[in-house]
Amino acid sequence: MNNDLSSQVSWLQAPGHTAWRLAEGQRLLAFARAAKLAEGFGDLDAAGRLADDASAQTLTTARMTHCFALAHLQGIPGCLGLAAHGVTALRGPLRDARYGGWFAQAGGCEGSGKAAYLHAFVALAASSAVVAGVEGAEALLTDAIGVIERHFWSEEEGALREAYDRVWQTPEPYRGANSNMHATEAFLALADVTGNPVWLQRALRIAERIIHTHAAANGYRVVEHFDVAWQPLKDYNQAHPADHFRPYGTTPGHAFEWARLLLHLEASLARCGHAPPPWLVDSARTLFDTACEQAWGVDGQPGLVYTLGWDDRPRVRARLHWVHAEACACAAALLQRTGQARFEQWYRRCWDFISEHFIDLAGGSWHHELDVDNRPAGTIWPGKPDLYHAYQALVLPGLPLARSLATGVALNVTKR
């Protein structure tokens, strides 16, 4: 790759790249519309169809609601009604009317638990829907904040507790970086929408624990699993290395997500008049560099592997679309923050890889998984249920760092 980009216009400012991003985003949205069910949104297969027995999933519904709210703010017709459908579902059939909080899917049963990861996405969806002016979104947001503060946020720990049984009596003896990462994302949005800076301080406390303490002590490898005393569980799920949400070892895709969120947090703190700690940007750079060095092409094939063992060897060699989407978004954020040409190189390299291997122009949307030879697969993630990562990667490069996506999109449209 040519290292001299000094005479070239950055893709972040290139009109052709911006037009491509916006067009690809609309293509993803058109595909995702088929996920609508009476009780929310369900998971689509590789051809963009719902299974005959498909049920509404709360995670899918929350992510779709968030994305359709962003699309409405961008001025894409037909998306307000879809975001409103998601809000109605999250206030109705997906909510536990008896004990509060949200089931994993419509018709949740007595054995259903309550997971912090899921509730963080409900809060994110609600905040985006409020910015988009969706009817009922304010009530959903109030409900989501109440559940997080009553059950999940631990002031003593400065982080989220992981999960409970349905009636909120039995907590899971586990703490997770993944749920707290998405809580950090949601808290940045809550700070924007509510105007309450406490959410920024909570996001900073989470980042201090997960990144500044544990990742920094482990060579900026993100420790994913902990016990209730926040002691690392490095052997967790060793027998299930390809788990969707709690894989064994380290997950380079999460390093990219964390790095980007640290930059958003830094910018948001500065915008609110707080002096952000210097480690935020330093950690973001190191997380990105470490993940790229350890995961890109490490097995002889281009692209980023899903997971690594603690010996830094590939454990799950599949390439997942969300990992590459987050690498793109992170490279864009670091390029915007630092202006360093190496982040431009990585931004282009990741989009080139996505264009060649993940984007499915024949079947629609993106392949969610590639095998070890970079051919479409579905062992870990069958079908194409997830709009969130890909769509955000297409929206983020055009936004300032200091705002959550919905607020950033709204302000960006207003300025034009």
UniProtKB/TrEMBL annotation:
InterPro entries reported in the protein's UniProt record: 6-hairpin_glycosidase_sf, 6hp_glycosidase-like_sf, AGE/CE
Pfam family, any one: GlcNAc_2-epim
GO molecular function (one): isomerase activity
Protein name: Sugar isomerase
Top-level taxon: Bacteria
Keywords: Isomerase
Family the entry assigns: Belongs to the N-acylglucosamine 2-epimerase family.
